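no rush on this but wanted to send it before i forget. theres a chain ive been looking at and ive put its sequence and its fold in token form underneath. please have a look and point out which stretches look like helix strand or loop to you. thanks a lot i owe you, the record is right below:
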Amino acid sequence: MRYTVLSVKVIIAWAVLIVAVGGAVTAWLLMGHTDRDTEADRLKLDAIRTAGSIVVGTGGAAALLLAARRQRSTEIALRQKDRDQADTALAFALRERVAADTRDDAAARRITDLYTKAVELLGSPHAPVRLGGLYALERLAQDNPGQRQTIVNVLCACLRMPCELPDDTSDDLPVEQIEDTYRATYRERLQEREVRLTAQRLITAHLCPGEHTDGPLSTFWRDIDLDLTAATLVGFSLRRCAVRTAVFRSATFVGYADFASAAFSGDADFGATTFTGGANFGATRFAADADFEWTTFTEYANFEAATFATADFEWSTFGDGADFESAQFTHSANFGSTTFTDGADFERTHFHDGANFGAAGFTGYADFRTTVFGGTTNFGAATFTANADFHGAEFCPIPAPRTDSPTDPQVDFHSTTFERGIPPELADYTDLD
């Protein structure tokens, strides 16, 4: 909005004009009353006062006009100042945004450069260089939480690569080359194993909640997914670790595998895996589906006090004993066609929502003492070669639909084979002949 500024000349001209108008009015009034009597004099004086009032009123009106213009100009100036301040704040915010975008772009480029260089190191044929790449990725992930899952995916991809361990030897080399070639090969395999062990340690070291699980001192990486499909894992340990989902399908665990007190908040897939050494899942918590279908446990497998949601061990093989003592299965548990070669301990285990042992094979001692079976229990076509102990086992009634009255326990031992004789605790079930 344009605003016209009054000049000094204009103000003087208006003042002169007001005085002239007052004088003219006074003269006119005096000229119009020339009588000399007392009444005439009074009229003249009234005329003069009237003229003076007109002059003063006109001057006051002019002063009021000037004050109004001054107030208006002040308000316009304040409004313009507010607009200028708003424009300045907007320009500052825009500069800040541009600066932040510039910093973000620079940080993204820096992260990309570091990530690219680290990944390039992993492709080196020299083990020390690959180790440097692993540690560079680990540091990058620690400093940039948004990159942690991506870097874990890279480390998992490294572990999924095929490898030959130091114990593997070749018998096809010529006699004159076998010593030197074997030494070089053995050294390369040792170095490769060290690289893989380092990758495993870098992953698991950041999956274990410690004293500092939050804040700048935290080394714990939350909500990490692991994909180690068909990987060869040596002495793998997730002891006391917490992950979201984990896929180990068709993986091979060489040596002792320790998952004690681990927590899986999502699905855990161990289908078709092979444990060449002992496997410890004691007190492990599976909050979602736990898939151990077609899994082979070559040596002793410990699931004592483990907690499962839905568990599937169908067609699995326990070659050296299985311990599920005090385990909790909150949903269905499937051990159909599972082979327990050297003893199965389910003492004090609680199946809350059904247990399927149909066609399972127990060639060693089967311990189901004080086990609680809720829901439907199926041992149909199972085979117990050695002793089976169900002393104190409890088969819970199932609530009938739409009523509060429970029905009889749904227990199926049809075609079950007890080579050492039917346990007396199962005599009440009429389907046992």
The radius of gyration is 46 Å.
